[in-house]
Write a structure and sequence with these properties.
The structure holds 2 protein chains of 2 kinds. By secondary structure, chain A is mostly beta strands. Chain A has strands at residues 4-7, 10-13, 18-25, 31-37, 44-50, 53-57, 64-70, 73-79, 87-94, 106-107, 111-115. By secondary structure, chain B is mainly β. In chain B, strands 2, 4, 5, 9, 10 and 11 form a 6-stranded mixed sheet that branches. Chain B has a 5-stranded antiparallel sheet with strand order 1-3-8-7-6, with no helix packed on it. Classes of the chains: A mainly beta, B mainly beta.
Chain lengths: 116, 117
């Protein structure tokens, strides 16, 4: 089973709202990732969690706040977003962060976010 | 630093024709290479990957790719296109050794494949 689940599938929020995106995997993976994907573009890495600790932050604005409560769950808290933050937000997981010849990232279906 | 170039943002083929999607990479260390497919309004699905060993890699849905170090290429092929292959395809590279970008995937810009009857 290589399933990564994400909720909600769609989210519409105003610029003053606070919302959260949720990602879950039960593959025993110890690395989890958030990506942002704009239309017609490749995914852009935002954050990497390695063994529940934040290991990479790609200079993401503080209005995006990641959280990894346990090894299976990854959240992305959103506050005071801008319309340009509208995008598909993808979560991914891998067995170990960057280790091993077969290290592969498995992606969830994404959350389509619209900021009004 | 590493980078990926996918030649052709759009490729159109007839059903039953050969599919060839091109990917060239740049990496200062031996790379790990991946092809992902993305159907409309969905996440990315792994098609195949090259890590070490055999340079011809077979993946799901009849796709395969060949790692050519001398040409720094990892082109994706399928002998006979099917309507269900219509999607966007991303080539990605990852470092195989340490460094600040260790473990990070670098994606190409993507190629949209259209299959017409």
């Amino acid at each position: 089973d290589t399933e990564v689940t994400q909720t909600p599938k769609h989210l519409v929020m105003g610029m003053t709202n606070k919302k959260s995106l949720k990602c879950e995997q039960h593959m025993g993976h110890r690395a989890m990732y958030w990506y942002k994907q704009k239309a017609k573009k490749p995914p852009e890495l935002m954050f990497v969690y390695s063994y529940e600790k934040l290991s990479i932050n790609e200079s993401v604005p503080s209005r995006f706040s990641p959280e990894c409560p346990n090894s299976s769950l990854l959240n992305l808290h959103l506050h005071a977003l801008q319309p340009e933050d509208s995008a598909l937000y993808l979560c991914a997981s891998s067995q170990h962060p960057g280790q091993g010849a077969g290290e592969t990232q498995y992606f969830g279906p994404g959350t389509r976010l619209l900021v009004l | 630093a590493q980078s990926v170039t996918q030649l052709g943002s759009h490729v159109s083929v007839s059903e039953g024709a050969l599919v060839l999607l091109r990917c060239n990479y740049s990496s200062s260390v031996p790379p790990y290479l991946f092809w992902y497919v993305q159907y409309p309004n969905q996440g990315l699905q792994l098609l195949l990957k090259y890590t070490t060993g055999a340079t011809l890699v077979k993946g799901i849905n009849g796709f395969e790719a060949e790692f050519k170090k001398s040409e720094t290429s990892f082109h994706l092929t399928k002998p006979s296109a099917h309507m269900s292959d219509a999607a966007e395809y991303f080539c990605a590279v990852r470092r195989s050794e340490g460094g600040t970008s260790y473990g990070k995937l670098t994606f190409g810009q993507g190629t949209i494949l259209t299959v017409h009857p």
